[in-house]
Amino acid sequence: MTDTLKLFPAGIDTYRQPVVYMHEDCHICRAEGFAAQTPVRIDLRNRWVIATLNVVERGGWLDIDKAALSASAWSALAAQTGDVARFSHPEPPASTSSIRAKAYGARLTRPDFAAIVGDTLDNRLSDLDLAAFITACAGDRLNATETVALTQAMQAAGETLDWGGRVILDKHCVGGLPGNRTTPLVVAIVAAAGETIPKTSSRAITSPAGTADTMEVMAPVRLDERDLRRVVEAEGGCVIWGGALNLSPADDHFIRIERPLDFDSTGQLVASVLSKKAAAGASHVLIDMPVGPTAKVRSPEAGAALSARLRHVGEAIGLRLAIHLSDGTAPVGRGIGPALEAADVLAVLRREANAPPDLRARALDLAGQLLDLAPGAVAGSGRARAEALLDGGAAETKFLAICAAQGGFREPDEAPQRIEIRASSEGTVSAIDNRVIARIAKLAGAPRQKTAGVRLGVRLGDRVSKGQPLYEIHAATSGEAEWARTYAERHEDALVVTEESR
């Protein structure tokens, strides 16, 4: 009897959670007392990982003398089919005492947060442990000092890009507003102005598209640090997926737990955003904060509290920070979903007559404020510079050059399935629910299906007649289109049309 088993890939994606599958009659399960959800340490050559055990019953798909690994566990071990690994009980995570203390109201220090972050990255903490930590920090339970300490611990656990003391501009949107795809436009304008803006972006987690998803429609975004530096040195900017760079890696683990809980936590949001900005080497950062009843930030009071915390932490970690409060009452642009948002971005860059005016205006506002933030800038001159660079075609030229440097530009595709949702009455569009519209786009297949999503046909304040198209569902398959249509028909409040009294 040994403590080893042969490995093979389970072919199951568990996102960032390493999982191991063993037969219930496996000699290791019996001898070690392993049961479902037990953390198990797996050693292979000079690598190890702690994985959560899932038990396969008799008559299942797994042989008794083998262990199957999820995609993340397989990758962490650099395993090959037939490798023999050793299995054991891991040491109990030391940070659980800090999590327990926080749950009872204690204030944590940077070493406490560093231990939690370290155990998270080593997969020593179970999902229950992480959920307890997220819950204990929810709401306003992290004060300003703790937020600084958590931000620093998260940044220190990953890589930090060093740009040799250069001025590095960056921007971030706190989210919650479908279609608000200003980043590619801002990067193109700011880089065309001669500034440096290496933008690392995220993929969607619960939204119909993240910046990386939209950019990937037009150019490769999975670049390593060497290629990132090559692109930035050549063109002054980039728009890439940050997941390949190990910048504040604990954040992805926290988000995986935080999203299903749907908790609003000022401290954790600030730590998430600013740890990644600092890790990317930014020196000057603009935060776009949409405020609206169905946005992530729902009131001016919440916006003020979040702005104050962002400024405090930004100053503490050496970032020069500016906040842009924007209108979050309705989606921005016409497209919601990767390819549809990419089409909007290109329409603005190409100065097309039908380009979404609200997306253009927001991009110019943000690019102008970011240019004003740069050292030596003439205060208030940024927006005019941004407008000249966009209208003169320099931003389009720069964007295409960035795409070429990242691996080549391509035009967005279009969805083969389309369904119009029409107004049931005459009146004025008085409200658009960001969350419902985003949900319809996701049910249509976004962001997994790049061409899926929603294209808006009307804006707030528009007059519509009965039977007029309000928006169009785009999908890759008829099944996904019908799935989204069914939900849309049950939620007519996605777009509220108010009939005028006679």
From TrEMBL:
It catalyses: thymidine + phosphate = 2-deoxy-alpha-D-ribose 1-phosphate + thymine. The keyword Transferase applies. InterPro entries: Glycosyl_Trfase_fam3, Glycosyl_Trfase_fam3_N_dom, Glycosyl_Trfase_fam3_N_dom_sf, Nuc_phospho_transferase, PYNP-like_C_sf, PYNP_C, Pyrmidine_PPase_CS, Thym_Pase_Put. Its EC number is 2.4.2.4. Keywords: Glycosyltransferase, Transferase. Residues 428-495 form the Pyrimidine nucleoside phosphorylase C-terminal domain. This is Putative thymidine phosphorylase. It comes from Chelativorans intermedius.
